[in-house]
Amino acid sequence: MDPFRAVEKAMAMSPEVWARHANPLSGLTRMATAPVLILAIYARAWIGWWSLLPIAVVTAWIWVNTRIFPPPADHGHWMTRVVLGERWFLARHSVTLPDHHIAAAHWLTALSLLGLPPLVWGLWVLDPGWTVAGGALALLPKLWFCDRMVWLYQDQTGSVPGHPEPKPQLPPEETAQ
């Protein structure tokens, strides 16, 4: 099973939802959710069980975020290209992608996962050092992954980041839907 597709399925990412998620406001505010969720979990040290409220709000935001913004009018923004590159990456079983992009995505995801044990430990014992170190180790490779998705999109479409693009260029399986 493809874990990337499993996450897509769990989030119920239809073509319409993907189009909305391509709005830069969706991607940029979504990036902020991980540190906020980490803080909400850590907040149990200060507010006890009341920390479940901000945890629930952040978790709901993760779902709503991909659906609340309108599709972008222009697909030239860096964050929009992250989402479009992700769609190409998810189509890697049906389209030919450069091996270096696939390998980088897998390595960066594995690197990001290495941050989870120290992050979870830091949150469990309420140690700010472990929490910050684990959070950074989990989030920095994810940011690098995002940049790789922009590069992948550029390689697949010949587009130039930052240049206006009124219509996204999607993988063949996406355009058939």
Automatic annotation (TrEMBL):
The lineage of its organism: Bacteria, Pseudomonadati, Pseudomonadota, Alphaproteobacteria, Rhodobacterales. This is Uncharacterized protein. It comes from Thalassococcus arenae. Keywords: Membrane, Transmembrane, Transmembrane helix. The chain crosses the membrane at residues 36-64.
